[in-house]
Amino acid sequence: MFLIVYGDTIITDKSKSILTLIVSSIIVLVISLIIMQLIDWPKRPVSGWTSCKDPDECNYLGLRGREIEYTDEDFVVILLGDSETQAWNFSFLEMPERIL
After folding, report:
1. CA distance 33 to 30
2. Rounded to whole angstroms, how far apart are CA atoms 81 and 62?
3. Tell me: the pLDDT tens digits for 55-83?
4. CB-based contact 90:98 (threshold 8 Å)
């Protein structure tokens, strides 16, 4: 049995092996995470308000809908909501903004 005395602490072969295993596991995990970030794996999901499935359906803000053009005399209605307001279940021609 091999003992290492460090100050008042005695480190045995078994505890040294466990410590080496823990430290090497952490190093491997960190290196793996860095490599995954560099190659962008897994791919980030397309989600959120600016996730247009069809680029032809996106306006200049990156949101689903038509281009927003209005003057000072126009009456503006703002649709606030969640994914129901974004209306993915409707075709582009049936969106709530078209009805309004």
Report:
1. 5
2. 16
3. 888 888 878 888 888 899 988 888 887 77
4. no
